[in-house]
Task: structure prediction
Amino acid sequence: MKRYALIAGLLGAAVCADTQAQPRGHQLPDNLTQISAHVWAIEGGSPAIGIVVGKKATLIVDNGLGTPNGKIVLDAARKLSTKGQKLYLTTTHYHAEHATGDGAFPPDTVLVRPRVQQAELEAEGQKLIDIFAGRSPEDKELLQGMTYLKPAVLFDSDYRLDLGDVTVRIAWFGPAHTRGDEVVMIEPDSVLISGDVVQNKAAPYFYCAECTPASWLAVVDKIAAQFHPKIIVPDHSPMGDASLVTETRAFTATLAARIAALKAEGKSAEETGKIVTAEMQAKYPDWGSLNRLQLGVTHAYAQ
Ligand SMILES: [Zn+2]
Result:
């Protein structure tokens, strides 16, 4: 039997906030972990995939790179659900390793997505697919013949989904890693699926032009004000508790303040990038992805 990597290997590291090299070829059942009463995760790949199982319906959060990975995710969701149960699908953002598994899903799957994320996917999605397909034969094969589902629900900022005995809130708070990042709060379980926005000891990756330390901080502030999760499941780093929000907030606040101060002193974007990268590496020695802060500086200077 052929085994598919749920991950994009080193390539994923170039697009999202991977903190460690991921092994290839995980078999899904070994990685399916119950997080809480209604929440399961396919862990060990990058990204982690969330599955929320209610009495009436099941929500899948992210579906991997390409149709073969989508099939692995779909099979896991079906295994956890009652036969014929309604399926909802949503994606934390439009990047290929999160959102190109659609082809495996039946056409009656209800795809829910922020309006901003859908627009971003339509504008930029192919570019990401090309980047992944161009970097390794394995990823190219995974993406072969990929198709997108048409969203059934597009929302502006907040969507409440009733899965029967569990309510889920999907929220878009503004640009952070991408323009269309969403977070998924499983309210009765006190679990937040935080995408790339709240990670565990992984520096923010300011991918979109509007993505700055200040915009990221504003998103984290909204998460902190509205949600009080006990468990946080990030995309590309280990699970954690509420302290992940506090840490991400402190990191982005420090970064935003230092960039503003250095800009006011007349430093160039390049100088500021070098200074803040060195400062944050000294302050957060155990964090990954600290080599990409220049992007956040460049975007902040452009605004
Ligand atoms: Zn990403």
About this structure: The pocket of zinc ion is lined by residues 15-16, 93, 95, 177, 196 (CB under 6 Å). The chain is about 40% helix and 20% strand. Residues 47 and 77 are 16 Å apart (CA to CA).
